[in-house]
């Protein structure tokens, strides 16, 4: 052995003394170790690095302090040397650090991937359940409107029955005029059909454009110049005129040459020929340029096959398409493009390609891209042996290539797999492989399937194929490829460091003419580094240097991505979780509340269970519970406070439209207060013991039946807020209605004279007067509109608008106007007193009789100019209802629900608005804007409708800032942002940002606007915020 009892040795780089030599004790965790073995029992000199105190299973071998003893084999003990021990400890520390880092990176990626799949599932579900039905509703409305126009312009005798046929549920419904007011022909034409192919073709090339110019036929020189142009000037797009020529020429080529959905490709037989198969690139231009740089550009002997998902996520998908289209037109056989699930309008609206094209070229060009997408093949068969498809195989058995080839592919991807044909197309674009045999549901959900090895074998055998190559997802091993199903199914992914986050390698497969192949992996450098490399290696004599530089750049890129990708991934994880919780707040609250947690708190295990059930079972909730700081010092999670952290904020540029928020919240509170009397009267039916409380269920039903101007989701928000308020008795499960209603106070928002400001009776009087005004608005509006309806000036469809706070104020203004003899918009004190006395004021609540003397003093108080007259319309609109609760949670939560609803369905709203705005100018007629919102409401039904009709009207009224009847919807829809207020930290508390609105309490006003009526940014938008996102630091 070489050592004796008491010798000093090094064990795992640590100093230890030998205390025992002989047969080692049995190891219950390693049966092989139970065989008779000799070794040492050692005692470490410092720190508890051992496992015992010299005894095992009751048998003592030597004596030492607990945790200081360890049994090791003979070869684990080395002669003690300080330098050797230090080196061993450093190596062990480094290996331990790298292992922890690798584990954290892998765990973070798996979590990020699950969240990404969850988001994609939500996009699919939203498109299936909301987007597509809304589009169908809008298209039907437009069709009906066009029929009305044709009827009016040509007369009934000129309109054929075929023109009047409107497709309905039974396919036979005839003409029916649309509901709602008609738009003028002038407005209808604004922004419509203003851009077409001929107008773009007539555009002049900008004088400052120095890039390649299209000349027909397309030459190889142009294609190579285009690569150089995008490498050196990636942010200078090809002029729109040229881009349209390429797109339309490619579309014509596909129409002429592509008859089926399957393309058969043969690798050129010329010596040195090859085919480079590329997976998802997702707009990452640096990856495509790097591939071309390493393996050469497309040519007759260097064929490229791109397996879909070129669009979305990255910033440069347009540039990638332009390069591929150019090579396709120059040499059609040199480039083959498969269709991916992101070559689809529903995904493009969510993941960025639609915005990219509109920003660079406009809406007409986006439509042209969609036409090309619909023409792309769904799969490729190489040399009759290799099946290349973007997603995977189908849920139907015995599918042949003939079935696939006969699919009707020239259309959008089906929203859901209903018919046989839809199912095949959907699965080819969306399915994933799984390790288990048979078929199951993919983690993407929403009708997406996963197929096992037996399904792969059956399909390949049925069609005399050897292997299936697909893309569609980042390999779980973070490599550029991942073989499954015994190598018969291979996932290929070419976007390295996907989304700048995952740190994965990209990969391509290079096939020779005999189908021998090699897989090349890479980490693409940045565009700037590719530019630099190109300038360094132009000379042909530097080939050796070139290969060395390529390897160096890829290693450098890998190191850089390793440092930055983790931080970006952690930040995106927090953003995705924030978005998820914002959208599911009501479901989470319901789950918490029904766990018997009426007290407003749950145990950590209950919190994890609720989040797992509502948000996702595959998420690491134990870890997230710590990362999100949800457990308080007493060991509980206070779920109302937790949910209140998350909200969708409305951050319009230059603080536009903020008066919509003020109007919405004011109307919600007015609705609650106006229901005060009805509530008290109705509660008598439920309050049998006359203690002023009712059960939670009864109150919920009562609020719903009274129709207080809230949508069903907003009623659920109100119920959640009640449980978090003192009005809710958790033990009894009952609500003190008086206390809840007492939170809401009417305040007079305008200035009153200083000498009257702190007079108690005056404050109470203004409160009661305001309450009476708000209550009387509805009654006055009813009379006002009823008279107009009888006069034939108003249709019955406008009844829903009567609740608009501004409209009701104008209606009540008519009541005061009777007492304005001068008719100049002002009231004398006497007329003011007469008008107030006609209101029904609750003097019992006021506490004293309101005499003429009191009312004259009120008039003096609000007449701050001393002019002895009052602007009565301004006075009527100066009363607002507020939540006296200090944190104003009701206002924030109800407003947050409205913002969340629009944010959650903004993709469907945007696609609906594009039907009215085919050029995608970002503007539509205000009535079209309203029609899109109403269509979404209708599709979601009454129980899930995000907005009430009144709230839609309020939004439409406030969106038309220029009073030209047009609404800038793109700017509006992009103004909603999910935030977690727990992580909001001002970058510089002493220096607010100037980019987000008025500073230092100043109010921005538009020209000709009264400063007292200007929109004040009452949010926390005046400062920039950053999210603390060191996700791995707390692990």
TrEMBL record:
Biased composition, class Polar residues, residue ranges: 1019-1035
EC numbers, comma separated: 3.1.3.16
Keyword Repeat: yes
Family matches, as Pfam families: CAP_GLY, EF-hand_7, Metallophos, PPP5
GO molecular function terms listed in the Swiss-Prot or TrEMBL record: calcium ion binding; protein serine/threonine phosphatase activity
Domain CAP-Gly, first and last residues per copy: 41-73
Enzyme class: hydrolase
Cofactor list: Mn(2+)
Residues of the EF-hand domain: 674-709, 850-885, 904-939, 947-982
Basic residues composition bias: residue spans: 179-190
InterPro entries: Calcineurin-like_PHP, CAP-Gly_dom_sf, CAP-Gly_domain, EF-hand-dom_pair, EF_Hand_1_Ca_BS, EF_hand_dom, Metallo-depent_PP-like, PPP_dom
Family to which the UniProt record says this protein belongs: Belongs to the PPP phosphatase family.
Protein name as it appears in the record: Serine/threonine-protein phosphatase
Organism encoding this protein: Neospora caninum (strain Liverpool)
């Amino acid at each position: 052995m070489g050592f004796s009892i008491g010798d000093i040795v090094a064990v795992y780089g640590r100093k230890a003394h030998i205390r025992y030599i002989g047969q080692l004790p049995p190891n219950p965790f390693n049966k092989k170790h139970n065989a008779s073995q000799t070794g040492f029992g050692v005692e470490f000199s410092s720190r508890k690095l051992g496992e015992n105190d010299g005894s095992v299973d009751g048998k003592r071998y030597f004596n030492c302090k607990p945790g200081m003893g360890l049994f090791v084999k003979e070869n684990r003990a080395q002669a003690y040397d300080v330098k050797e021990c230090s080196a061993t400890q450093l190596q062990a520390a480094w290996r331990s650090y790298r292992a922890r880092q690798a584990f954290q990176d892998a765990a973070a990626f798996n979590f990020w991937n699950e969240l990404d799949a969850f988001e994609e599932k939500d996009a699919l579900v939203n498109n299936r359940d909301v987007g597509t039905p809304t589009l169908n509703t809008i298209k039907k409305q437009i069709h009906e409107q066009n029929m009305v126009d044709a009827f009016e312009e040509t007369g009934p005798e000129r309109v054929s029955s075929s023109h009047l046929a409107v497709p309905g549920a039974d396919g036979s419904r005839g003409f029916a005029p649309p509901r709602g007011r008609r738009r003028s022909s002038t407005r209808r034409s604004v922004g419509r059909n203003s851009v077409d192919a001929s107008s773009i073709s007539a555009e002049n090339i900008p004088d400052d454009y120095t890039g390649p110019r299209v000349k027909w036929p397309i030459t190889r020189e142009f294609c190579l110049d285009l690569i150089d142009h995008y490498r050196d000037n990636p942010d200078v797009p090809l002029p729109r005129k040229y881009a349209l020529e390429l797109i339309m020429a490619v579309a014509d080529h596909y129409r002429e040459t592509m008859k089926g959905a399957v393309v058969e490709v043969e690798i050129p037989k010329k010596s040195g020929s090859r085919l480079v198969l590329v997976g998802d690139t997702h707009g990452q231009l640096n990856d495509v340029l790097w591939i071309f740089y390493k393996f050469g550009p497309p040519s007759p002997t260097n064929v490229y096959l791109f397996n879909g998902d070129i669009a979305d996520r990255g910033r440069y998908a347009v540039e990638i398409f332009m390069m591929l289209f150019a090579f396709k037109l120059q040499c059609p056989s040199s480039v083959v493009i498969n269709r991916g699930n992101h070559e689809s309008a529903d995904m493009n609206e969510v993941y960025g390609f639609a915005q990219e094209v509109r920003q660079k070229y406009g809406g007409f060009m986006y439509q042209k891209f969609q036409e090309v997408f619909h023409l792309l093949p769904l799969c490729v068969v190489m040399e009759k042996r290799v099946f290349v498809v973007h997603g995977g195989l189908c849920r139907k058995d015995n599918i042949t290539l003939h079935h696939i080839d006969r699919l009707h592919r020239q259309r959008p991807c089906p929203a859901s797999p209903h018919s046989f044909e839809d199912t095949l197309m959907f699965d080819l674009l969306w399915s994933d492989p799984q390790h288990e045999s048979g078929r199951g549901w993919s983690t993407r959900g929403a009708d997406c399937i996963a197929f096992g090895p037996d399904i792969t074998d059956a399909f390949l055998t049925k069609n005399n194929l050897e292997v299936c190559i697909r893309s569609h997802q980042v390999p779980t091993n973070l490599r550029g490829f991942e073989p499954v199903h015994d190598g018969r199914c291979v996932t290929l992914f070419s976007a390295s460091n996907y989304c700048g986050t995952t740190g994965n390698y990209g990969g391509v497969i290079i096939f020779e003419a005999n189908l021998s192949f090699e897989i090349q992996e890479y980490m693409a450098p940045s565009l700037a580094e590719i530019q630099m490399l190109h300038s360094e290696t132009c000379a042909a004599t530097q080939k050796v240097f070139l290969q060395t530089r390529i390897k160096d750049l890829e290693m450098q890129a890998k190191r850089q991505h390793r440092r930055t990708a983790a931080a970006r991934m952690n930040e995106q994880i927090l953003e995705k979780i924030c978005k998820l919780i914002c959208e599911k707040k009501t479901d989470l609250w319901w789950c918490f509340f029904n766990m018997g947690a009426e007290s407003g708190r749950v145990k950590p295990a209950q919190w994890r269970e609720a989040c797992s059930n509502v948000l996702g079972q595959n998420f690491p909730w134990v870890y997230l519970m710590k990362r999100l700081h949800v457990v308080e010092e007493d060991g509980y999670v206070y779920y109302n406070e937790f949910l209140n952290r998350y909200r969708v904020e409305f951050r319009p540029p230059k603080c536009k439209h903020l008066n919509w928020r003020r109007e919405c919240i004011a109307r919600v509170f007015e609705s609650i207060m106006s229901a005060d009397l009805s509530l008290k009267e109705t509660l008598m039916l439920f309050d049998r013991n006359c203690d002023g409380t009712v059960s939670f269920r009864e109150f919920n039903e009562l609020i719903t039946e009274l129709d207080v101007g809230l949508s069903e989701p907003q009623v659920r928000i109100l119920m959640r807020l009640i449980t978090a308020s003192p009005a809710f008795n958790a033990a009894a499960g009952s609500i003190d209605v008086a206390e809840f209603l007492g939170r809401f106070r009417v305040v007079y928002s305008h200035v009153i004279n200083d000498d009257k400001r702190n007079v108690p009776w005056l404050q109470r009087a203004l409160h009661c007067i305001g309450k009476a005004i708000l209550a009387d608005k509805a009654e006055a509006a009813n009379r006002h509109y009823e008279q107009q309806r009888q006069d034939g000036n108003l249709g019955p469809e406008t009844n829903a608008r009567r609740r608009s706070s501004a409209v009701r104020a104008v209606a009540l203004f008519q009541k005061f106007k009777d007492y304005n003899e001068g008719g100049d918009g002002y009231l004398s004190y006497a007329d003011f007193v007469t008008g107030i006395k006609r209101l029904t004021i609750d003097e019992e609540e006021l506490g004293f009789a309101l005499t003429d003397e009191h009312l004259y003093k009120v008039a003096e108080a609000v007449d701050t100019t001393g002019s002895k007259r009052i602007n009565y319309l301004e006075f009527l609109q100066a009363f607002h209802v507020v939540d006296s609760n200090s944190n104003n949670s009701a206002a924030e939560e109800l407003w947050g629900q409205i913002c969340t609803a629009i944010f959650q369905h903004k993709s469907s709203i945007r696609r609906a608005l594009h039907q009215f705005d085919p050029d995608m100018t970002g503007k539509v007629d205000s009535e079209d804007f309203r029609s899109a919102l109403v269509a979404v409401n209708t599709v979601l039904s009454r129980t899930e409708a995000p907005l009430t009709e009144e709230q839609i009207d309020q939004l439409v009224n406030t969106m038309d800032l220029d009073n030209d009847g047009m609404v800038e919807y793109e700017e509006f829809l992009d103004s909603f942002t999910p935030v977690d207020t727990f992580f909001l930290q001002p970058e510089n508390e002493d220096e607010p940002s100037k980019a987000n609105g008025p500073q230092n309490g100043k109010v921005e006003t538009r020209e000709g606007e009264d400063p007292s009526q200007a929109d004040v940014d009452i949010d926390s938008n005046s400062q920039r915020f950053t999210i603390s996102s060191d996700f791995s630091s707390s692990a």
